[in-house]
């Protein structure tokens, strides 16, 4: 590989082992590396994950080794699902959905199955992340983004003590979930409800859908816009959560349909949120099943199974029935 890429062996080994962070490579050299990897057969989608992987490294490093003179990376921009998946890969070994279908080639000698942080580093990461979340809360409006994103990532710490802390911190924000319609804290309330669902309590998420989304055009727009950003339909990085309320005129409904459809079985804890979001998306864009018949057929299969199993709330069941009806019409 070193010979094929035109670098010395020590450099390539340093990138593989992490001794030399890829983010420290000069911009021109990194661009040349991407182009050369593509030329010798690297998967283009995997190459696109280099950016979120470097963002994940930056977030993890800044959390474990904080710099009091610089803002935390989670306060700088709204991170995406790809970045979150890369962070979680390092924390608990869960392979990012974008890489699940890729075969893992055999290697000589002992090789880690995942880029998993050593246990002391994982404990330090979550400990410092909880400190960052508490500090951001004390900062008021200026700490909204950092607090929301840090608290969300804290919910991936499955130790009993951490789960208790995260649950308490999230329940302290539960008042936000019960507010009707759009508020400046809408994104924080959404993240809190989603994190509580991951921890095993779906009721705040159901309350949030009923009170803070259903029937409010601004909130419904914010939800679809955030999904579009989270799933990659919006390519431009966003510096804060304000873009959700205004909407974003340049995202692909078809790509969002595919992402939400995949999420129906990838994230069962959030199935009600996926159902409501799909219902809202198809209500606004009834032509979507015609634009991607394969995705529509997969969604029809998933909705049929969910309706048979009756595993969603009453509201979600009604919305699921509406989605199923629209899809059936296009099949006929």
Rounded to the nearest angstrom, the radius of gyration is: 21 Å
Order of helices and strands: HHHHHHHHHHHHHHHHHHH
Compute the number of strand runs. Answer: 0
Low-confidence stretches: none
Summarize the SSE layout with pairings.
Blueprint: H1 2-5, H2 9-17, H3 27-39, H4 44-48, H5 50-64, H6 81-92, H7 119-138, H8 144-154, H9 160-171, H10 174-177, H11 186-198, H12 203-213, H13 217-230, H14 242-246, H15 253-266, H16 271-284, H17 288-291, H18 293-309, H19 314-331
Helix pairs in contact: 5-6, 7-8, 8-11, 11-12, 15-16, 15-18, 16-19, 18-19
What report would you give on this structure?
The chain has 332 residues and is mostly helical. It has 19 helices and no strands. Helix 5 crosses helix 6. It starts with a helix and ends with a helix.
């Amino acid at each position: 590989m070193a010979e094929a890429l035109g670098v010395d062996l020590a450099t390539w080994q340093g990138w593989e082992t992490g001794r030399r962070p890829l983010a420290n490579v000069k911009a021109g050299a990194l661009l040349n590396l991407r182009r050369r990897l593509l030329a010798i057969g690297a998967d283009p989608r995997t190459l696109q994950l280099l950016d979120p992987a470097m963002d994940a490294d930056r977030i993890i490093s800044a959390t474990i080794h904080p710099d009091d003179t610089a803002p935390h990376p989670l306060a700088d921009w709204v991170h995406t699902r790809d970045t979150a998946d890369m962070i979680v890969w390092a924390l608990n070994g869960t392979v990012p959905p974008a890489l699940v279908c890729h075969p893992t080639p055999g290697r000589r000698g002992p090789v880690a199955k995942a880029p998993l942080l050593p246990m002391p580093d994982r404990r330090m990461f979550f400990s410092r992340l909880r400190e960052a979340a508490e500090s951001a809360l004390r900062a008021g409006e200026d700490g909204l983004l950092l607090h929301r994103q840090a608290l969300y990532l804290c919910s991936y710490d499955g130790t009993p003590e951490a789960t208790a802390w995260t649950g308490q911190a999230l329940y302290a924000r539960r008042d936000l979930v019960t507010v009707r319609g759009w508020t400046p804290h809408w994104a924080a309330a959404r993240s809190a409800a989603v994190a509580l669902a991951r921890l095993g309590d779906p009721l705040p998420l159901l309350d949030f859908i009923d009170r803070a989304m259903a029937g409010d055009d601004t909130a419904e727009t914010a939800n679809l816009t955030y999904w579009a950003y989270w799933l990659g339909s919006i390519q431009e990085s966003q510096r804060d959560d304000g873009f959700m309320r205004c909407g974003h005129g340049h995202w692909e409904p078809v790509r969002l349909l595919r992402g939400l459809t995949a999420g129906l079985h990838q994230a069962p804890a959030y199935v009600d949120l996926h159902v409501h979001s799909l219902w809202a998306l198809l209500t606004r864009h009834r032509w979507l099943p015609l634009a991607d018949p394969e995705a529509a057929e997969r969604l029809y299969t998933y909705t049929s199974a969910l309706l048979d199993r009756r595993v969603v709330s009453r509201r979600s069941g009604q919305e699921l029935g509406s989605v199923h009806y629209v899809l059936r019409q296009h099949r006929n």
